[in-house]
TrEMBL record:
Residues 28-279 form the DNA ligase D polymerase domain. Keywords: Ligase. It is an enzyme of class 6 (ligase). It comes from Streptomyces dubilierae. This is Non-homologous end-joining DNA ligase. GO terms for molecular function: DNA ligase (ATP) activity. InterPro entries: LigD_pol_dom, MtLigD_Pol-like, NHEJ_LigD. Pfam families: LigD_Prim-Pol.
Length: 293
């Protein structure tokens, strides 16, 4: 029988705590839950009021990996849910609003993915995201070069952008925006991706054609579509080791000369939060959101 834990007055059955989810370094499910409890203060603000898609890997990254978008069967009635629009019709999804909900969700063993809009205003995007994806032999080092160009370009339009690792091979850039639909944000992101390719033809690529991607950085602008989701800040990833989509400083991006420099594991995040706080906190300040030209 799974042990019962009380979190802020909510009773949770947390199962299989000794189960190894990351065989490469022996990281267990109990350690996954501990990680999320440790980073809850910086993670929850980035999840709040956003419908969450779960990329589940209950038997580890080498087992079955699958998306859960609708409210899972057995979800406690105290977990907040919301109806969200979809092309095929509205559906009900989970909102991770508080620590008990976060611990319940973490017990599902999942990456957390969110849209670039809040459930209360699905017709207006409040984020723009660029997913910089390197094609081997390119790496996150080349992603950083493209990121620096995009930072300068966005600044010319009055948009302040911040970076985080994808937790896999690449880099994510995010900025707070206001007053535009997801469609318009996608158009703008594509315009900048095209500009990046013209400015750095040997390095950047805006087209999704896989045959063009070796040695280049794909500037994925399509993540801004209303239906798309992106890995949330601080989420663990379903990789061989417990890597994290970790916020990084621009100084770290500027100084990245080897892929390992921006490779962060669960154990690295609490000390980074202690040193830096939440590097993505400005995204939560509506007064700093930029307007698209």
């Amino acid at each position: 029988m799974a042990p019962i834990t009380e979190v802020e007055g909510r009773r949770l059955a947390l199962s299989n705590l000794e189960k190894v989810l990351y065989p490469a370094d022996g990281f267990t499910k109990g350690e996954v839950l501990h990680y999320y409890a440790t980073v809850a203060d910086v993670l929850l603000p980035h999840l709040r009021d956003r419908a969450v898609s779960f990329l589940r890997y209950p038997d580890g990254p080498d087992g079955q990996v699958f998306f859960t978008k609708n409210v899972p069967p057995g979800t406690p009635d105290w977990v907040t849910t919301a109806e969200v629009p979809r092309v095929e019709g509205p559906s009900r999804m989970v909102l991770v609003q508080d620590l008990p909900s976060l611990m319940w969700a973490a017990n599902q063993v999942a990456e957390f993915h969110t849209h670039q809009w809040l459930v209360g205003t699905p017709d207006e995007a409040d984020r723009i995201v660029f997913d910089l994806d390197p094609g081997a032999p390119a790496s996150i080092v080349q992603c950083c070069e493209v990121a620096l160009w995009l930072r300068e370009r966005l600044a010319r339009d009055g948009i302040e952008v911040y970076g985080k690792t994808s937790g896999s091979k690449g880099l994510h850039l995010l900025a707070a925006v206001r007053g535009a639909s997801s469609e318009r944000v996608s158009e703008y992101a594509k315009e900048l991706a095209v500009e990046a390719e013209k400015a750095m033809p040997r390095l950047a690529l805006h087209r999704m054609t896989r045959s063009l991607r070796p040695g280049k950085v794909f500037v994925d602008w399509s993540q801004n579509a209303a239906r798309k989701t992106t890995a949330a800040p601080y989420t663990l990833r379903a990789r061989a080791e417990p890597t994290v989509s970790a916020p990084v400083t621009w100084e770290e991006i500027e100084e990245c000369r080897a892929p390992g420099r921006l490779d962060f594991h669960a154990r690295d995040i609490a000390p980074r939060v202690q040193d830096f706080g939440d590097l993505l906190a400005p995204l939560l300040d509506g007064g700093r959101a930029g307007e698209l030209p």
